[in-house]
Amino acid sequence: MKATGIVRRIDDLGRVVIPKEIRRTMRIREGDPLEIYTDSEGGVVFKKYSPIGELSRVSAEYAEAMNRSSGIPIAICDRDNVIAVAGVPRREYLEKPISNGLSGVLSTHRPYTSSEKGGDVTVTEGGGEVSYLSPIVSEGSVIGAVMSLKQNGKMPDGSEKKLIDTGAYFMSSQTDI
User: CA–CA distance from 117 to each of 120, 136, 151, 153 (Å)?
Assistant: First the structure.
């Protein structure tokens, strides 16, 4: 563990405030679920909980099935990282943090379609443009997304959008916060 030098007191209801700097750095937002762990030395550790991350094997298999049936490169992410890809090199995307642009799109709670004009949203800061994205919603909160990636500048058609929407709906049905 890394010491921060920040000390906080627990209030009479058992709450402790996580400093804004740490929340910003760790991308912890209001309402985010946190898992609590203890260690043998008496330490307490808070870790961001990702319901989609818990389904990483299912996500990977589903992305692979979608890619094989359609030929479209597919990525699935939670609110922080790419957790499954198919049709693209895994090392370029898998377990990499999502881009700030993609994080902004997720916060809108709406599907996203790339434009022909450019300036598109990338999956990671390193690249890979999103063609179409459908948010994964659980109990009213966006917990991730299923997306197709642009290939040769091709714009998404209706069948691609329906495929991605179906994937997002399926993934949301598999989660339980």
Answer: 8, 26, 15, 11
- The answer for residues whose C-beta is within 8 angstroms of residue 4's C-beta and 6 or more apart is 19, 22
Least confident of 11-15, 44-48, 76-80: 44-48
Q: What Å distances lie between residue 19 and 6, 27, 43, 46, CA to CA?
A: 8, 12, 18, 13
Predicted TM-score (pTM) of the model is: 0.73
Going by their DSSP bridges, the two strands 34-38 and 44-48 should be labelled as: antiparallel
DSSP 8-state assignment for residue 53: G
For the chain, the residue count is 177
How would you write 95-135 as a 3-class SS string?
Answer: CCEECHHHHHHHHCCCCEECCCCCCCCEEECCEEEEEEEEE
d(Cα 74, Cα 108) in Å, to the nearest integer?
Answer: 21
Q: Provide the CA 143 distance to its chain's centre, in angstroms.
A: 6
